[in-house]
Specification:
This protein has three domains: 91 residues, Orthogonal Bundle (Arc Repressor Mutant, subunit A); 99 residues, Periplasmic binding protein-like II (D-Maltodextrin-Binding Protein, domain 2); 100 residues, D-Maltodextrin-Binding Protein, domain 2. The protein is built from twelve helices and 15 strands. The strands form five sheets. The chain has a five-stranded mixed sheet with strand order 4-3-5-15-6, covered by helices on one side. Strands 12-7-13 form a three-stranded antiparallel sheet. The protein has a three-stranded antiparallel sheet with strand order 10-9-14. Helix 1 packs across helix 2. The two termini are 54 Å apart. The model has no long low-confidence stretch (mean pLDDT 90). This is LysR family transcriptional regulator. Keywords: DNA-binding, Transcription, Transcription regulation. InterPro entries: LysR-type_TF_proteobact-type (IPR058163), LysR_HTH_N (IPR000847), LysR_subst-bd (IPR005119), WH-like_DNA-bd_sf (IPR036388), WH_DNA-bd_sf (IPR036390).
């Protein structure tokens, strides 16, 4: 294989010399030294066991064998150039399908608007979006990108940190009127809570203050695995709920929900953009990824995820 690969360079050197009629001009065209080009042609003749060029002090001339070989060298060069043009055209034309997976609530709130904005710029790119809590195998299932809340991304994936998902403990004004002020984690543990069954240890709520974590175990008659349903339950007074800040910011601003346990924060969870490790990413994947990264940098979203 090494010999064949080296022969390509030798054939290109020979064809350039034959077409320009000069080792000097061929060297200039190829960006090589004259001595190196001469060595390439001599090595080619030695490998083939034939003379391709008549060399005199005044001029170069093709032998009959050289003319035959030159025709094949030109065909080879033209084929390679055609292949390069075809690959270049395919990579510069942004089209095709991007497959992405993201958490249900996050994707539902943010991604449709982002994808619509992206497709205004790249209308030939289709987006296949999976919204679920399932942790898909990106490589085995053919996903290009994933948004994922995780403390430790998989080592075999390329991980780009996007920020953190901040959660808040909230309750309705009516619930607080009935159960009194809830200003410590222990008081929250003593009242009904809406349990989010997406968490592995769903009754453990870790609160943080001053770098110190205090985890309490909560309980309640309602256990739900869908964030919008948890929010709705909190709004109608079913109990204290832990929800992403981005989901309840408007409710907090309107007074429909109130934060409890002032001075304490729930542990934030890092958010990553993940993708398989591939040497050559399709252009459609690269432009979608870069668009998403820029979208996260907008001030109104940066505020939510820092």
């Amino acid at each position: 294989m090494k010999t064949i690969l080296g022969r390509f360079d030798q054939a290109l050197a020979f064809a350039t010399v034959a077409e320009l009629g000069s080792f000097t001009r061929a060297a200039e065209r190829l960006g090589l030294s004259k001595a190196h080009v001469s060595e390439q042609v001599s090595a080619l003749e030695a490998a083939l066991g034939v003379q391709l060029l008549h060399r005199t002090t005044r001029r170069l001339a093709l032998t009959e064998t050289g003319r035959i070989y030159l025709d094949y060298c030109r065909q080879l060069r033209d084929t390679l150039q055609d292949a390069e043009r075809a690959v270049s055209a395919a990579s510069s034309e942004v089209g095709g399908r991007v497959r992405m997976t993201a958490p249900t609530s996050f994707g539902d709130i943010f991604l449709p608007d982002m994808i619509i904005a992206f497709r205004r710029v790249y209308p030939a790119v289709e987006v296949d979006l999976d919204l679920s809590i399932v942790k898909h195998d990106l490589v085995a299932e053919g996903y290009d990108l994933a948004l994922r809340n995780t403390r430790v991304p998989e080592e075999h994936l390329v991980a780009r940190p996007l920020g953190v998902i901040r959660e808040v403990a909230v309750a309705s004004p009516a619930f607080l009127a009935a159960h009194g002020p809830l200003d410590t984690p222990e008081r929250i543990a003593a009242v009904p809570c809406v349990i989010n069954s997406n968490f592995r240890d769903d009754q453990r709520w870790p609160f943080v203050r001053g770098g110190r974590t205090r985890a309490v175990r909560v309980d309640g008659p309602l256990r739900v695995n869908f964030y919008s349903a948890i929010r709705r339950a909190a709004l109608v007074g079913a109990g204290v709920a832990r929800l992403p800040l981005y989901m309840v910011r408007d409710d907090l601003a309107a007074g429909a929900l109130l934060r409890v346990c002032a001075g304490w924060e729930l542990e934030a969870l890092p958010l990553y953009l993940l993708q398989p490790q591939r040497r050559h990413q399709p252009l459609r994947t690269r432009v979608f990824r870069d668009f998403l990264l820029r979208w996260f940098e907008a001030p109104e979203r940066r505020e939510l995820f820092t």
